[in-house]
Write a structure and sequence with these properties.
The complex is a heterodimer of chains A (about 220) and B (about 425).
Chain A lengths: L2 H32 L18 H7 L7 H4 L1 H20 L1 H11 L8 H24 L1 H6 L2 H22 L5 H18 L7 H18 L5
Helix pairs in contact in A: 1-9, 2-10, 4-6, 6-8, 8-9
Chain B lengths: L4 H11 L2 H9 L5 H5 L1 H4 L13 H11 L1 H8 L8 H13 L7 H4 L6 H14 L5 H12 L8 H15 L12 E3 L3 H6 L2 H13 L3 E2 L10 H5 L2 H17 L4 E4 L3 H15 L6 E4 H10 L13 E4 L14 H8 L28 H10 L1 H10 L3 E4 L2 H13 L5 E4 H7 L4
Parallel strand pairs in B: 1-2, 1-3, 3-4, 5-6, 6-7
Helix pairs in contact in B: 1-9, 5-6, 7-9, 11-13, 13-22, 15-16, 17-18
The chains are: A mainly alpha (about 220), B mainly alpha (about 425).
Chain lengths: ~220, ~425
């Protein structure tokens, strides 16, 4: 298989397989989690302003009082790479074109230099949070293979995508094929790793907000 | 009831619901919950990271309720939860977790960690991995009536003394009263002033009340140990008495987990809503304050801070009553930085104060460090609280550190300054 055949494969059958597993995986995992159900709370509710599931879904995006000061790397690094990923994934014109071809949906792209800068900042932030995971006793203690793996499969698409655009290290065609392959790996593992928090965090926040909202506590 | 690993694992399987599945699926191991836990902040030991305290529960979830986990189990790639492991976790789930719920406030993905600890304890209790101190308290509550083994004559004695001190009659088993007053054993033994305070306030406000000779104990060791069957038996005593006496309200005392037990867990334990309201004593007092009934003849002059008990405030939702009440009676109330729903635990909630091993007591003294700093930074010699357990835990720590600090109950402080 030469590099062009490789690229053709990852763009064709490879992408179909990855997107298929991703979609089935997401649906299965959501089903597996949320069909477990829960018991109705029979205690008479106390109503209070700001205490509900929906409030907590939004409120939890904001750090708690003193949080940033206590764990600056977690919060600032975390925000930076999450926002950076969103810019790179959804703001880069070729990505939008791909989505348009697949679904027909389209939106305006961001200037490529801006996306380029976002990619560099994202990678820098990800390296910083990785170093923090190695250095901080709590994070190191909690870390399992899944954490290092999830970091790697998230980092590789950004790195290979950036290298491809910059025409660095490998010929463009090869790097682009590697970039697409790395994204496919990410899609396949996402439903079955901690990366699935991208889907469940809304449910988690909502449950927490709901249970405590019943008691009149905005959490 | 005999305990076994099998029963424990079955109990864990039973408690796992959609929220727990969602929480475990969302955790990214960021470790931010550690910063919210006084057992971590005061020791610096990563094993006290709240989410880590749930590791056996997480594995049962993964192995029983996820496709990948079940596959791993079939091919022998997963590590089963063992008796030895649960034995190791006993310290993490009881000694070093007071179920204060501060971790549930900070998790960025929204995990309600304390919700899971409460459920995990069901499995720990069923598998027999429970500290002797809590086991004893539970046994006494079931067999005798209260965690300290008190019987009605002891309560009757306190009632008689309160009647003598106040000059008011304290009714017992009176039908149709506005309020059924519950006490905690801690109050009966250590702080009998609470009942005197209530008698004064009720008479002043013209509210009828009663005690029930077959349901005076408000605490619920079943909840602390994590056994819903026992918790149900204990809470049913109160429900039966309240319904038999046809009271409109049940008054939960200055005790944290008693409020949690009767107000929030109670209806869920018995499987139906109550026919009466459960009111925390501070809610009643704040209501009387707003009506202008709670007039003070003088104020407390010394500077003081307020300690908000976790189960009443952060986890119980009595958020707004305490501050106006303390301002009503105290001239120099100093608000602390982490107050109300952000307050730090006394270190002895959730049954921890019933554990009397050397290790548990040393740990309790150590984690009091955060409270000690709050007291010292505010520069006060008085701490007011509204939970008898917080109060006794803090008094022990204050003795331990030989601090010159006094603890006062809020209801009692208000009663002392009430206009005659």
């Amino acid at each position: 298989m030469n590099e062009l055949q490789f690229l053709t494969w990852v763009r064709g059958p490879g992408l179909d397989i990855a997107v298929g597993i991703f979609l089935l995986g997401v649906v299965w995992r959501l089903f597996e989690i949320y069909t477990l159900g829960r018991k109705k709370d029979l205690a008479a509710p106390r109503h209070a302003a700001g205490a509900s599931g929906l409030h907590t879904v939004f409120r939890r995006s904001i750090p708690p009082p003193g949080g940033v000061k206590r764990s600056p790397v977690s919060y600032i690094g975390g925000y930076t790479f999450h926002i950076g990923l969103a810019i790179v994934v959804f703001g880069f014109a070729p990505h939008i074109l791909l989505v348009k071809n697949l679904t027909g949906l389209s939106w305006p792209g961001l200037p490529s230099q801006f996306v380029d800068l976002a990619a560099v900042i994202t990678m820098a932030a990800m390296v910083v949070v990785l170093v923090d995971r190695i250095n901080k006793p709590v994070k190191r203690f909690l870390s399992t293979f899944g954490d290092w793996f999830a970091w790697a499969v998230t980092f590789l698409p950004v790195l290979t995508g950036w290298l491809a655009v910059q025409h660095l290290l490998l010929p463009y065609t090869t790097m682009l094929a590697l970039h697409i392959l790395s994204v496919e790996i990410l899609l396949i593992v996402l439903p079955f790793t901690k990366l699935f928090h991208a889907f469940t965090l809304f449910g988690s926040r909502w449950y927490n907000g709901k249970v405590n909202g019943q008691r009149g506590v905005p959490v | 009831m005999s305990a076994s690993l099998e029963k424990g694992i079955n109990a864990l399987k039973q408690v796992i619901d959609a929220p727990i599945a969602s929480y475990f699926s969302s955790c990214v191991h960021c470790g931010l919950c550690a910063d919210a836990c006084l057992f971590y902040t005061e020791t610096g030991d990563p094993k006290y990271t709240p989410i880590h305290k749930l590791e056996p529960l997480r594995r049962v979830y993964e192995q029983e309720y996820t496709l990948l986990g079940r596959l791993k189990k079939v091919v022998g790639l997963s590590k089963p939860v063992t008796d030895d492991e649960l034995d190791q976790w006993q310290e993490l789930v009881y000694d070093s977790c007071t179920m204060c719920g501060r971790c549930s406030m900070v998790c960025p993905v929204g995990n309600d960690i304390v919700y899971m600890v409460r459920k995990f304890r069901e499995g720990m209790a069923a598998s027999g991995h429970v500290p002797d101190g809590i086991k004893g308290a539970t046994k006494r509550t079931v067999e005798i009536g209260g965690p300290m083994g008190l019987k009605w004559p002891a309560v009757a004695n306190v009632i008689r003394k309160a009647e003598e001190a106040t000059g008011f009659a304290i009714p017992v088993d009176k039908e149709g009263a506005d309020y059924l007053v519950l006490l905690s054993s801690m109050e009966i033994v250590n702080f009998p002033e609470y009942l005197e305070a209530l008698a004064k306030i009720f008479n002043k406000a013209g509210i009828s009340f009663t005690l029930a000779s077959d349901a005076f104990e408000a605490t619920n060791a079943g909840i602390q140990i994590g056994n819903s069957d026992i918790a149900k038996v204990i809470v049913s005593r109160i429900v039966d008495a309240a319904e038999k006496l046809k009271v409109k309200n049940v008054l939960s005392p200055e005790c944290g987990h008693a409020y949690m037990a009767i107000r929030w867990e109670g209806p869920n334990l018995i499987g139906r809503p109550f026919t009466f309201n459960v009111v925390h004593v501070l809610e009643l007092l704040d209501n009387l304050r707003q009506k202008g009934v709670l007039k003070m003849k003088g104020t407390f002059k010394d500077p003081l801070i307020l300690h908000d008990p976790c189960q009443i405030v952060r986890r119980g939702g009595v958020l707004n009553a305490p501050e106006p009440l303390i301002r009503q009676v105290a001239e120099n109330y100093i608000p602390i930085v982490d107050k109300q729903k952000w307050n730090w635990c006394c270190g002895g909630g959730g049954g921890a104060s019933a554990i009397h091993t050397d290790e548990a007591e040393a740990l309790r003294a150590k984690v009091f460090g955060i409270k000690k700093r709050q007291i010292e930074e505010a520069g006060v010699k008085t701490v007011v609280t509204f939970c008898a357990n917080c109060r006794i835990v803090m008094e022990e720590a204050i003795d331990h550190y030989e601090m010159d600090t006094q603890l006062l109950g809020l209801t009692e402080l208000l009663a002392e300054h009430l206009e005659d």
